[in-house]
């Protein structure tokens, strides 16, 4: 189960620290709580430091979050991705899909 | 009281199930039967080798997909895929994927063309549904013993050499998952297979299978199992892999579907003509 905490930074940026596995059980939290909470910022950084596992549903949720926020004019960055998770991101070519500059 | 098709009376019957529970249960079972019959269809029989595939859903119904399609030139087209998500929604998209594969296989010349055509056909639907499918497609040519494959974000198959103690991933080839980006062009890569070689296609549900301590089965265990059983026929290797996973997970509930497809080259290369189309058993 995933949890998240938010902290406002300068320039209308919100920093979101995710904690836990990003999988199918995260669907409601991500779509109903996290996504609406980020819509009114200029930019959002998703910190993946405490996310040990992302499955294909989690990957879909992530793509959905980034693409939905982009449509609303929110610039999204993804940071501190663990090596194991990065491996899956690379396999699915998530950086190519979201744009390589999404990852910091 | 007015009732439409969506209204159910919550009345418990003798076995404690409401009418809605019973209807749902019945419909899920019917859906599972449809899926299992479509998945476990005919396996092609051909000279010079054998193929086999199996899939075990994590829930009642799954989102993994594999298929064989015999081509008129004697080649066999193999596909394995993993639809994002689980359960009924994934199963619905799996059926969509199957339809796209079957019609693309008929009209495309290579695995890469098949993936390009499938992405073309499915991209808009998958974006609307916020989903995607990873796929690996391969053509086995029994005449030249060549395996040609293309990849859309799927994990690479394992190549088990018949005459050496070596299990390794097939040479890497990249490609965006189907539904990821529009207008993708995929690339083919070919390798030459030899007598007794086996290629093991699979979905990540195998290496991510978990036991009660949340440890994963991992690639190392899979490689070990394949190495130990490589001399067996495809059906037996399949059973050994399944047994090894079951022994490791000790009945812990799984998060993802488990699917594998095996292609094994026979000991002696049979003489075949290019007009010899594979038969469906």
TrEMBL record, chain A:
Residues 12-104 form the STAS domain. One of its GO terms (molecular function) is anti-sigma factor antagonist activity. InterPro entries: Anti-sigma_ant, STAS_dom, STAS_dom_sf. It comes from the Bacteria. Belongs to the anti-sigma-factor antagonist family. PANTHER family: ANTI-SIGMA FACTOR ANTAGONIST TM_1081-RELATED (PTHR33495:SF2), ANTI-SIGMA FACTOR ANTAGONIST TM_1081-RELATED-RELATED (PTHR33495). This is Anti-sigma factor antagonist. It comes from Domibacillus antri.
Automatic annotation (TrEMBL), chain B:
Residues 46-265 form the PPM-type phosphatase domain. SUPFAM superfamilies: PP2C-like (SSF81606). Keywords: Hydrolase. It comes from the Bacteria. The keyword Nucleus does not apply. This is Serine/threonine protein phosphatase. Signal peptide: none annotated. The keyword Hydrolase applies. Pfam families: SpoIIE. GO terms for molecular function: phosphatase activity.
């Amino acid at each position: 189960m995933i949890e998240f905490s938010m902290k406002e930074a300068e320039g209308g940026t919100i920093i979101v620290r995710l904690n836990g596995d990003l999988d199918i059980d995260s669907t409601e939290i991500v779509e109903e709580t996290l996504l609406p909470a980020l819509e009114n910022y200029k930019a959002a950084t998703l910190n993946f430091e405490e996310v040990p596992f992302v499955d294909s549903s989690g990957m879909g949720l992530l793509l959905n979050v980034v693409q939905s926020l982009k449509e609303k004019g929110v610039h999204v960055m993804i940071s501190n991705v663990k090596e194991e998770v990065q491996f899956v991101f690379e396999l699915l070519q998530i950086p190519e899909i979201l744009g390589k500059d999404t990852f910091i | 009281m007015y009732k439409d098709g969506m209204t159910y009376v919550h009345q418990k019957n003798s076995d404690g199930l409401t009418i809605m529970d019973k209807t749902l249960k019945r419909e899920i079972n019917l859906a599972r039967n449809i899926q299992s019959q479509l998945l476990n269809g005919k396996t092609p029989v051909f000279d010079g080798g054998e193929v086999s595939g199996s899939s075990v859903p994590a829930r009642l119904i799954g989102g993994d997909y594999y298929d064989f399609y015999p081509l008129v030139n004697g080649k066999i087209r193999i596909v394995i895929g993993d639809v994002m998500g689980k359960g009924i929604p994934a199963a619905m998209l799996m059926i969509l994927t199957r339809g796209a594969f079957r019609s693309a296989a008929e009209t495309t010349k290579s695995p890469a063309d098949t993936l390009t055509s499938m992405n073309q056909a499915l991209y808009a639907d998958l974006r609307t549904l916020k989903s995607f499918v990873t796929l690996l497609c391969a053509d086995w040519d029994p005449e030249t013993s060549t395996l040609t494959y293309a990849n859309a974000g799927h994990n690479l198959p394992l190549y088990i050499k018949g005459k050496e103690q070596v299990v390794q991933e097939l040479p890497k080839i990249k490609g965006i998952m189907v539904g990821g980006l529009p207008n993708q062009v995929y690339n083919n890569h070919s390798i030459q297979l030899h007598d007794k070689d086996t290629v093991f296609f699979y979905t990540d549900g195998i290496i991510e299978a978990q036991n009660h301590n949340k440890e994963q089965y991992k690639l190392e265990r899979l490689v070990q199992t394949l190495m130990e059983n490589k001399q067996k026929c495809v059906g037996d290797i399949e059973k050994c892999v399944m047994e090894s996973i079951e022994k490791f997970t000790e009945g812990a509930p799984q998060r993802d579907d488990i699917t594998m497809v095996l292609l094994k080259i026979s000991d002696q290369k049979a003489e075949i003509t290019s007009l010899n189309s594979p038969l469906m058993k």
